[in-house]
Amino acid sequence: MGQKINPLGFRLGTTQNHHSFWFEKPKNFSVGLQEDEKIRNCIKNYVQKNKRINPKSEFQGNGITRIEIQKEIDLIKVTIYVGFPNLLKEQKGQTKGMKDLKMNVQKEVSSVNRKLNIAFKKIEKPYRHPIILAEYIDTQLKKRVSFRKAMKKAIEFARKTKIKGIRIQIAGRIGGKDIARVEWDRKGRVPLQTICAKIDHCSYPIHTIHGILGLKIWIFVNEK
């Protein structure tokens, strides 16, 4: 029986970094961990409800690649990395949308004595990140596009960013079939056992009318 490990946790300290930066006493560590999860879920839910919707667009996801949280004694810094600009709707100016987001996140923070600082940063080449490709495939499958066509199109987007390899795997009742199966496609090299290889990975659930599909994407960016 094969032993599986998350590619990101396998490479922490070499090619991957933590998304949370803070120290806490052992007895309070679980509280801080739950607080980070609440902050991330609050931001994702707010962006999902207030994002710009373009029915003609091929991409309908949040566009958030990662959320970094840095905690100090009296300050919490939250940096949201997005792949596409103008993510939120215009609400009488962009500042009002930021204030609403900050108020919602402040409610999830347990201590009121700490200040909250939220900043958006745009990333270059968004289709190099697996979560963006996963949201693209999710949008295509919900529009009844063939899963093979969606996978090939996502691979084309990723290959344009000059990556060295990509693998996409979908599992479940694909296409509404009665028997669940696993389908995958790969282009280039994806050396999962090489620690010095920088590999981005994500697991993404796709909710369809036939059930939930499991989507996994591995992207081999480069090698140190």
Automatic annotation (TrEMBL):
One of its GO terms (biological process) is translation. Pfam families: Ribosomal_S3_C. Keywords: Chloroplast, Plastid, Ribonucleoprotein, Ribosomal protein. It is found in: Plastid, Chloroplast. Its main location: plastid. Residues 137-219 form the Small ribosomal subunit protein uS3 C-terminal domain. One of its GO terms (molecular function) is structural constituent of ribosome. GO terms for cellular component: chloroplast; cytosolic small ribosomal subunit. Part of the 30S ribosomal subunit. NCBIfam families: rpsC_bact (TIGR01009). Belongs to the universal ribosomal protein uS3 family. This is Small ribosomal subunit protein uS3c. It comes from Eustrephus latifolius (Wombat berry). The gene is rps3.
